[in-house]
Specification:
Beta-Lactamase; alpha+beta; 26% strand; 46% helix; flat; binds adenosine-5'-diphosphate; single chain
Length: 792
């Protein structure tokens, strides 16, 4: 008993010690301490540490006192989970602080278990993490803002043609905009973090910029320079660049930002300007020299009569200066004294007004030759020029006095004060610009006529510039696209309103026109922008050069009616052909039956064979029409397989030998060649060409069939010695329903669909079909088929 009692006492003591140490530990921590009933319904104790509200007596409404309402669900779910699994509760959540404001805590509670493993109590701590959470939130917002800012800068820097970039202090690129990446022909990943040398700059160039970066680091000053180096696409270009220091908060240089502009074109202009001004300077010098010489010699004569001479010297100076200026050009020149209105002209000017050299010509006489319409205008300009500002550049028509010839003249004059200051000399040149004037008038008229014709034909016109894809459309064109005639219609709209079935093909066609210079010609459907109406249009366009710039220009006209007619017609043909097939099949079956019964009657048998042949022909025609309607509605189907074209030709040879007796058919020996194609359809093409050769060449003549190949294509040729085809017919021979209109053709039946079908079948196989023919000598139809890469 004593023993037991001793043991008990020491256990109790140890327990008290542990509890004291535990309490001391709790005292020492600043965290909130709490204990809860096993089901968390009751908070047994809560030491809020000034962060949360204390609970000294057990309480059941600890949730509303301590948990932030929005996080209640979150906390409850977690509690359920932990009770269920008897695991440590750990959660960051919002709480109501002592002062009722929102705070954040990291709460952690451990389940205390009895010997049976049942929870008897939860014991927990809650750490105040409000400051950290608020800081995280602020950081999040700041980051979102800075991301947005970055996107904004990205948009700005990527849409400028200028090159923008940033270097770190180790000469590495930390940023390069789109234009710069394009210039290098590199991606962001390939070039960022790299130095100039690694990004393809030549050593001298890299060294130069690195020295400049050193200079900026040292002086904190920006620098500006000009350099020439090659662009990945555009070749050698001249660039103007500025490097600017980027400072950190301490005012130290932390990076160098650069901007570079392509000034090649500006430089060229400057150079041209410089050359022109040099040339002008040269001319001026020459003129001055000549003037000096003249002045010297004129000075001699000046001694005779100063007064008289003064006037004359001026006149001659004026004339000579003009003569020099106009040099060999056939200009007429004049001089008018501003006070006396003395009018002196040379022979050429008189000639331009229809006067003889030895006749005198007054201002009034000259004005009289100007057509009535222009006369008052020229007289007024002249008067203004002499008495006022001297500005004179007029173009007018003149009827020659003696020769009655119409000339368009351009006169340019200049008013110059005399040394004496008493009067001015109004001098100038007149040139005959009849040819240019009429030519430009002619062009203007032609353009106007064209515009009227375009309007009258209901055509819409458009233009797209190659450089920036700026789209201009005529009012009519806009209406096709369902826009108002005076509304702005951007290029994207022109593409977007195209029916999805055609959109990609049209966009590709336009791009091909730009890149390969091909002509664009397409029929497609448009969905009206405002009215949503479906319209069929036909567009034709090509790339043209205008004032050195490339434009894709063209016309569009509406073909809705025609298209709908075509569709109706096709539907009709398809329906009729289909309906005709059924009775024909029964007729054929009856004929075969009768044939069998009439084996003995030779005559009737022959007649029946003929009837059968005719029915075969008719079936073929109907099938042709059905094929056409399938083609037009895009339903043609190719059953491709690998086969040997030479074997197919062999079959054709045997079939021809059995059925064609009117002509001599020669099949050249053919080597095996494997194609991937629709066997039946190719057979159809061959038999069509052979039957045509038979149809359109005289009886007894020879027809040659041959097949050759290169490493890409196999070529089958069917050559006859028949009527031949004229070039103007040959151009349309593969068109639907096209038949040659001539006397010997009229007697031969047909619908003009055979060759159309052949060409469509071959085109669907990505082959070509062509014709060489000479009238009276014969025709050679050749089609090609791509060879299969697999040769069996
Ligand atoms: P069809 O023979 O039924 O009229 P096709 O499309 O086969 O239709 O031929 C179109 C036209 O081309 C014919 O009407 C004929 O005038 C001409 N043609 C076709 N093949 C030849 C040929 N081998 N020689 C001369 N003319 C031909």
């Amino acid at each position: 008993m004593a023993n037991f009692s001793n043991k008990y006492t020491s256990e109790k003591q140890r327990f008290a010690e542990t509890e004291n140490r535990f309490k001391a530990l709790i005292e020492a921590t600043s965290d909130v301490i709490y204990s809860l009933s096993p089901d968390w319904q009751e908070m047994r104790e809560l030491d809020g540490r000034g962060f949360l509200k204390d609970a000294h007596a057990p309480t059941k409404n600890w949730r509303s006192a301590n948990i932030y309402p929005d996080d209640l669900d979150l906390v409850n779910t977690k509690i359920q989970e932990c009770i269920r699994e008897k695991k440590v509760f750990q959660l960051e959540h919002r709480v109501l602080r002592v002062d009722g404001t929102r705070g954040w805590t990291f709460s952690k509670a451990i389940p205390i278990l009895d010997e049976e493993g049942e929870i008897i109590e939860w014991f927990g701590t809650a750490q105040d993490i409000t400051l950290r959470k608020d800081a995280e939130e602020a950081l999040q917002i700041a980051k979102a803002q800075s991301d947005q800012q970055k996107r904004l800068y990205e948009t700005v820097t990527s849409s400028t043609p200028d090159l923008l970039y940033v270097f770190d202090l180790n000469y590495r690129f930390t940023y390069a905009n789109k234009a710069l990446l394009n210039m290098w022909g590199k991606t962001w990943e390939d070039s960022i973090g790299k130095r100039l040398l690694d990004n393809g700059y030549e050593p001298w160039h890299a060294e130069m910029h690195e020295k400049e970066i050193d200079y900026i680091k040292e002086t904190k000053l920006p620098i500006r320079g000009e350099v020439s180096f090659p662009h990945a696409v555009l070749g050698n270009r001249i660039y103007d660049y500025i490097f600017t220091p980027v400072f950190n908060e301490q005012g130290e240089v932390e990076a160098i930002a650069g901007a570079t502009r392509d000034v090649t074109d500006r430089k060229k202009w400057e150079e041209n300007l410089e050359n022109t001004s040099k040339t002008l300077q040269g001319l001026n010098e020459e003129l001055a020299n000549t003037n000096h010489e003249l002045e010297a010699s004129l000075g001699e004569i000046a001694k005779v009569n100063e007064e008289l001479l003064k006037a004359h010297v001026k006149i001659e100076e004026g004339q000579i200066a003009f003569r020099l200026a106009v040099n060999a050009a056939n200009f007429g020149t004049w001089y008018i004294h501003s006070i006396t209105r003395e009018f002196i002209t040379d022979a050429r000017l008189k000639e331009l007004f229809g006067y003889y050299e030895d006749e005198t010509l007054s201002i009034e006489q000259a004005l009289a030759q100007i057509t009535e319409e222009y006369r008052p205008y020229v007289a007024e300009k002249l008067e203004n020029a002499i008495s006022d500002n001297g500005d004179y550049d007029v173009t007018y028509p003149v009827i020659g006095f003696h020769d009655n010839r119409l000339r368009w003249l351009r006169a340019i004059g200049n008013l110059k004060a005399d040394h004496s200051g008493e009067f001015s000399a109004f001098t100038g040149v007149v040139m005959d610009i009849t040819d240019q004037y009429l030519a430009s008038a002619e062009i203007r008229r032609a353009e106007e006529n064209l515009r009227m014709a375009v309007d009258a034909a209901g055509l819409g016109t458009f233009q797209i510039s190659a450089q920036d894809r700026i789209f201009t459309a005529s009012p009519k064109l806009k209406t096709f696209f369902g826009f108002h005639p005076d509304e702005i219609m951007p290029y994207e709209a022109a593409i977007n309103q195209i029916h999805p079935d055609f959109r990609e093909a049209v966009a590709k066609g336009v791009e091909r026109a730009f890149s390969e210079g091909t002509r664009f010609e397409m029929e497609y459907q448009i969905i009206g922008y405002h009215d949503e109406k479906l319209r069929w249009v036909r567009a034709i366009g090509e790339v043209q050069l205008k004032e050195g710039k490339e434009y894709f220009t063209g016309v569009i006209h509406e073909i809705t009616e025609r298209k709908l007619d075509e569709i109706r017609k096709n539907d009709f043909i398809a329906m009729v052909s289909h309906e005709l097939k059924t009775p024909l099949t029964s007729v054929k079956t009856y004929i075969q039956l009768i044939h069998r019964k009439l084996k003995d009657d030779d005559n009737l048998s022959k007649m029946l064979s003929k009837t059968d042949q005719q029915i075969n022909k008719m079936t073929e025609m109907i099938n042709g029409f059905l094929d056409i309607s399938r083609l037009e509605s895009g339903k043609i189907h190719l059953n491709k397989e690998l086969f040997d074209l030479s074997l197919l030709l062999k079959d054709a040879e045997e079939e021809a030998a059995a059925t064609i007796h009117s002509h001599i058919l020669i099949f050249s020996p053919i080597e095996s060649v494997i194609v991937n194609a629709d066997k039946n359809k190719i057979e159809h093409v061959i038999s069509n060409l052979v039957n045509n050769a038979v149809k359109y060449s005289p009886k007894g003549s020879t027809i040659h069939v041959s097949c050759t190949s290169d490493h890409e294509f196999a070529y089958v040729s069917v050559k006859d010695n028949g009527h031949g085809i004229k070039p103007e017919d040959a151009r349309h021979i593969f068109d639907r329903y096209y038949r040659v209109d001539s006397d010997n053709m009229r007697s031969i039946s047909g619908f003009g669909i055979g060759l159309y079908l052949c060409s469509e079948i071959i085109n669907h196989h990505k082959g070509t079909i062509s014709l060489e023919s000479e009238v009276g000598k014969g025709s050679d139809f050749v089609f090609s088929l791509p060879i299969s890469p697999v040769q069996l």
